[in-house]
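Appendix B. Raw example, untouched.
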Amino acid sequence: VTVFASELLREAESLVSSKLHPQTIVSGWRAASNVALEALEKAAKSHPGSNAERHADPKFREQLLRIARTTLSSKLLTHHKEHFASLAVNAVLRLKGSGNLDAIQIIQKLGGTLSDSYLDEGFLLDKKIGVNQPKRIENAKILIANTPMDADKIKIFGSKIRVDAISKIAELEIAEKEKMKSKCDKIISHGCNVFINRQLIYNYPEQLFADAGVMAIEHADFEGVERLALVTGGEIVSTFESPETAKLGHCDLIEETTIGEDRLLKFSGVALGEACTIVLRGATTSILAEAERSLHDALCVLQQTVKDPRIVCGGGAMEMLMADAVFKAAAHTPGKMAIAMEAFATALRRLPSIIADNGGFDSAELITQLRASHVIGKSTMGLDMEKGAIGDMEELGISESYNVKRQIIISASEAAEMIIRVDDIMRAAPRKRQPRQ
């Protein structure tokens, strides 16, 4: 999106310097955008069948793998794209068409290599179980809460309590314990055997939960609690006065599992059956962070493809196809709008050129060959960056999601239109620095 918007603005700069009004440029771009999207839609190919039939069709899976490989080719994971494309496709197909990416959790764990990353069915929580509490629970009934479980003291800033005897301090401590015990009894009365809290759980309530045979997990981060509530079918509660209105989460088994040197909690058989966790392994935190961003991009593209199974050829083929369609439409358009439409087509043609330049190839030679192929009707021809030549994208298996490609054209043209409409920029004078007294 950014590259295409930049190319449009580059073209707009020369048009404005040629005394073409920005409003005329915008009108031409809008007409060109409509022509380009129409050509893109005609070139798109859809996978037949219903949603359930497509999920069971190995050809549709192969189609998703191609799109995932294309998405990962320009990212850090390019050397492991086969492995991560398979992970992403397996995770998205588990969603069964729901498109809810919140059901897919990504966990980063230092150690090993990127190729050691794997997909785990169920939900993993990077927390530890309390002391002397059960380490394995079957048919778990989970109460998810966001409530303070520390010493219930007076929390008013600047407040003080004055006593006239040491025994009064002991009475205060006993009152605090009784209040916490009452709170724990209310939690246990919900009929749960697992208590997961967003905040800390101090030693005394932890001991009470252990005596009651309840597994207590503290300080689960907010995102983890939200996702846990989603996949287990529970709700996050903060008060415990009415157990009948609280909705507990459920899963078949909770147990500890080991990843590298760390111990995590694994929730198997959760209520949301499509929930899964992708565990990323890597040598450094920066590699893991970039791998997560790359994988998230692939998951988003695959999610859009599952919703709308139309695909188009990659490798710059569609940009050349749309540019040719816009040039032909501009030839039949009278007036200055035609100049703006030609500028739009030129910006589209620059995208394959940038791809070739980034690969270190002779972009002028490749783009002229590609343009000649499209003129004679070979609309599936694009850039083969493995060989540094042009090739048939269908045969090479280089595909992209129609929805993603369509959104690139819409978003980039809208962003460029918004910028070109700016008449002038007013800058406030910097504040004068006051001399020190």
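End of appendix B.
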